[in-house]
Amino acid sequence: MAVVGAAALLIVGFDSVTYAATGSSLLLGRVNKAAAVTTVQNTGKGSALNLVTKSAATPPFTTNAKGLVKNLYAARAASADKIGGLSLAQVQAAAKGATGLTGPAGPLLSVLSSGQTVTGSYGVEDAATTGDFHGALIAYPFPVAAAPKFVFVPSVGSNPDTTHCAGTAAAPTAAAGFLCVYEGVNSLADFFLANTPTGSFGAGSTGTWLQFKSNGTGTLVELGTWALTAA
């Protein structure tokens, strides 16, 4: 009886403690130890190891090591000059809760660069009587260093400047140094003139004010698009 009891105790004790035999199979649900590196190699397709947890919020593995793991994304990011446009020092400062972090410069311009084009739309809808005036504002997203030359292209009739304003209301274009306004929809409206915000005729360096004269009584509708290219 003593011998049988000792054997049972040995089996139970062996099953409850660390399995520590190098070269043997891994035991699931147990602590496994080895005196050499364990490598899992997949000679077919797919990953070499798939770790699935009960919850997606649970980490797939833990470690007590603090050394840098090569080829992980974090390792590559740590060696990069910029992460998301920020320096590593800025990222580290942000991770520590630093305030007042300055991000990379945005795309805003003080003036539109030479050769760059911006486009937009304009419109006015109003009750009208014959002979009264109605206006629509065009404001550039960026000012230009020099006021552009203004061209209005009506929806009916000929284009007054096909050389510099060769687009359409659906696809507005402008040559360098020109503001081309393309009329798309017209009801009871005749183009009268373009005024700058300072009151001079034509287009200004920040925008222009379009004036239309009603040619009838009813609902005046004037819609269109525009393109501006800096000189």
Task: Give the helices and strands as they follow along the chain.
Answer: HHEEHEEEEEEE
Overall mean pLDDT stands at 83
How can the largest sheet be summarized? Answer: 4 strands, mixed
Termini Cα gap: 105 Å
Radius of gyration: 37 Å
Helices and strands: which structural class?
alpha+beta
Strand content: 25-35%
The level of helicity is: 10-25%
Number of strands: 9
Which spans of ≥5 residues are poorly predicted at pLDDT below 50? Answer: 1-16
**Outline type:** elongated
Main attributes of the structure:
231 residues, alpha+beta, 4-stranded mixed β-sheet, 3-stranded antiparallel β-sheet, 3 helices, 9 strands, 28% strand, elongated, disordered N terminus
What's this entry about, in short?
By secondary structure, the protein is α+β, with helices and mostly antiparallel strands. It has 3 helices and 9 strands, in the order H-H-E-E-H-E-E-E-E-E-E-E. Among the domains are: 1-40, no CATH class; 117-229, no CATH class.
Describe the structure.
With 231 residues, this protein is α+β, with helices and mostly antiparallel strands. Among the domains are: 1-40, no CATH class; 117-229, no CATH class. Helices cover 13% and strands 28% of the residues. It is built from three helices and nine strands. The chain has helices at residues 2-16, 73-78, 88-95; strands at residues 82-83, 86-87, 117-128, 133-139, 149-153, 178-187, 189-195, 207-214, 218-229. The strands form three sheets. Strands 3-9-6-5 form a four-stranded mixed beta sheet, with no helix packed on it. A three-stranded antiparallel beta sheet has the order 4-8-7, with no helix packed on it.
